Amino acid sequence: MICPKCHFEQSEGSSECLRCGIIFEKYVHARKTPPEESSKPSKSLSIAEESTKFELFAWLKHSLFYVEPDVNVFYFCGRTIIYLVLFIYGLKYAFSSVEMAYKVMPFMHLINLPFHEAGHIFFIPFGRFMMFLGGTLGQLLMPLVCLFAFLIGVRNNFGASACLWWFGQNFIDIAPYINDARALRLILLGGVTGRETDGHDWENILRALGWLKYDHSIAKMSYAIGIILIITALVWGGYILYSQYKNVDEFHR
Length: 253
Known about the structure:
single chain; mainly alpha; 0% strand
């Protein structure tokens, strides 16, 4: 009998080679197994992962850009008017500054205020720091809740884009508040400034983090995030309106 590995000749009936020590049965079985078999599980896993990614991308694309097959002309006209208002005020914010943010849309500050105050109450159980931060979180979370309600609940993508615009506007709305952390000159809800009380939310937040000296930089960053979100919302909403226009029967008779 000749060893298939080292070709050493030995007596018949041996189970292993006297020279190299391989076990004949295992060696032959290993040689018969195609090398492709060992890679099959990883290949099939890779295909499954790619399929999952593709399905996720397709679902996300369909969710973000879904358009009703039949668009009511009155709904479309109303959405167009809303879009124009958001576009005009978006431009005003883009060409404004942190110091002038409240003067662009003063009524929006009043809309955001109840959610800000509710955030304080909701986060009280989580400690003093979270109570101060809760006001900002409250006014940021509300537009996001509305966004997902429009996007997933009622499949109104244009409404979702308007909520994204509102989300961005809230970042702009909190920028002057952050900017005032050291100066404490803003008039608060009680008609007094932060100097006349124990400070205000962002003075306490930044002082606790040791970031008080960065108040102006953080405020500018918040304002910039707001502008980016507003531009994104306008691009998204504009695309949805364009897609809806093609499905308004009254415009194509």
